[in-house]
Write a structure and sequence with these properties.
about 350 residues, three-stranded antiparallel sheet, 3 domains, alpha+beta, hpI Integrase, Chain A, about 15% strand, single chain
Length: about 350
């Protein structure tokens, strides 16, 4: 049985709750009670305003080591002596993300994160890290929380040389996601193409690429080859396991600067289909045209590096031929939008 006081910060105020949990084994707990401490004190006619709150989960003035989701991350820098540890990291890890210094470090984490992921994803990571710091229960943790914490540990390990963070990075396992089977309807794609963001959706629909790769296409300055029914532009975007070497398009779009974060905000305001689902819609249409799966994966930048190196020329030749099926179908379908 676990009994502790949980502190929650919301709207500039601090609230305290008495939490009772039953341990079920294998790291799982079941909440039995979650009662505002203020109500308990009021029942005993205690002056709440005059209460001095303790900091620990067990009501002791000295905070014990938590047994929940948050790992113990006492900083260990490149050297054992604490005086050698960066002061920002020292305060950040000891106070568990709850100070202004931690905000600065989270800003550095976001800048590092944006080198590998989109701005929206990085903001999600930071929100989940803050939820963990606020006392998230193990049972309430999602795949996002585990992934966000693991990314933070990697940042501290690689960029700050924190050895305990390196150990934590290896220990924390990201939860497997369930398959997302949603595929947009033609009407949703039509609505997106006819919106103010149609220029961006047009590139997504033609190429089947990811949003970040479509943004690179719109920046222009690409070498393109005319294939008759379409063009193939050299992209060469390699990000870990994601490799998009070519962008297949009906025609070369007019170059323009693109800010993905602003596009995402505009998409949300207009309530349009998320960019990532256009890619699934394109793959579904290509499969319906009986295009080989290997060609679809190559066109959409989904081919493993080992296969790509062995069969690059074969895949390129097949993709050039097979994309023609999709190009001819897409031209006919797009014409119906403007009739």
């Amino acid at each position: 049985m676990y009994v502790y006081i949980k502190r929650v910060r919301s709207g500039g105020r601090t609230y305290y709750y008495l939490v009772v949990e039953e341990y079920l084994g294998h790291g799982k707990r079941r909440r039995i009670a979650h009662i505002p401490v203020r109500k308990i004190l009021e029942e005993f006619n205690v002056d709440v305003e005059g209460v001095n709150w303790c900091g620990g989960w067990d009501l002791n003035p000295r905070r014990p080591t938590p047994t929940g989701l948050k790992p113990d991350l006492t900083p260990v820098g490149r050297q054992q002596d604490d005086t050698q540890v960066n002061e920002q990291d020292k305060g950040f890890l000891k106070q568990r993300l709850g100070t202004q210094a931690s905000q600065r470090l989270l800003g550095e984490f976001e800048a590092w994160c944006r080198q590998h992921s989109s701005g929206e994803t990085c903001r999600q990571y930071i929100n989940k890290i803050r939820e963990i710091d606020a006392g998230l229960r193990q049972l309430d943790a999602t795949r996002w929380h585990a992934t966000a914490w693991k990314r933070l540990m990697r940042f501290l390990c690689e960029e700050r040389g924190n050895r305990k963070a390196c150990e934590e990075f290896k220990r924390v396992k990201s939860r497997k996601s369930t398959p997302d089977l949603y595929v947009p309807q033609d009407t949703e794609i039509r609505e997106a193409l006819e919106s103010s963001l149609g220029f961006f959706y047009r590139v997504l629909v033609e190429s089947g690429l990811r949003a970040v790769e479509a943004a690179r296409v719109l920046e222009g300055d690409l070498r393109c080859v005319d294939l008759g029914c379409c063009i193939r532009c050299e992209l060469k975007m390699i990000r870990r396991s994601k490799r998009a070497y070519w962008a297949y398009l009906l025609e070369e779009p007019d170059p323009r600067p693109v800010d993905l974060d602003r596009l995402q905000e505009a998409r949300i305001e207009l309530d349009l289909v998320p960019f990532k689902y256009v890619r699934k819609w394109v793959a579904t249409k290509m499969l319906s045209l009986e295009m080989p799966e290997a060609a679809i994966n190559f066109i959409q930048g989904r081919v493993p590096d080992t296969i790509l190196r062995r069969h690059y020329l074969n895949l390129l030749t097949i993709a050039d031929k097979e994309y023609g099926k999709y190009a001819r179908w897409l031209k006919g379908w797009l014409q119906t939008l403007y009739i």
